[in-house]
Design goal:
single chain; 145 residues; alpha/beta; Rossmann fold; 5 strands
Length: 145
């Protein structure tokens, strides 16, 4: 089982930006956490981060025939990117949306999730643990498929 983990814009700035919302841990620490979770679950993971919408779309498209599922934190593109929604629908892989914070408890413009419309599940407001939950859900789903 191989799971693609896609992280969107500004996640590379974790630990620096808006610490009161996103915490003090760095993106490198998030990557290490995801890799450790994947190893514990017995799944391989491919990590990808980009600040560019087109790069995210292309990487999702490349997952077809290469990965079995997708965990995606589209970050700000959550609320704006129909292109990412279309890419997720095009590859039709099981997908889980993750958010470190809880968009539902934030600004009104964060209430719509386009990417979430193509995902089986959304995990929000659990920090790094949201990735563990998403990976565990997909690992179990793939095992039982």
């Amino acid at each position: 089982m191989k799971i693609l983990v896609v992280n969107g814009p500004n996640l590379n700035m974790l630990g620096v930006r808006e610490r009161e919302i996103y915490g003090t841990q760095s993106y490198a620490e998030l990557c290490a956490f995801i890799e450790a979770c994947s190893a514990q679950l017995g799944v391989a993971c491919e990590l990808f981060q980009s600040n560019y919408e087109g790069a995210i779309v292309e990487r999702i498209q490349q997952a077809l025939g290469r990965e079995d599922a997708i965990v995606i934190n589209p970050a700000a593109y959550t609320h704006t990117s129909i292109a990412i929604l279309d890419a997720l629908r095009a590859v039709a892989l099981p997908a889980v949306e993750v958010h470190l914070s809880d968009p539902a408890a934030r600004e009104c413009f964060r209430q719509v999730s386009y990417a979430g419309m193509a995902c089986e599940k959304t995990v929000s407001g659990k920090g790094f643990e949201g990735y563990r939950e998403a990976l565990a859900y997909l690992a179990e789903r793939l095992k039982n498929a």
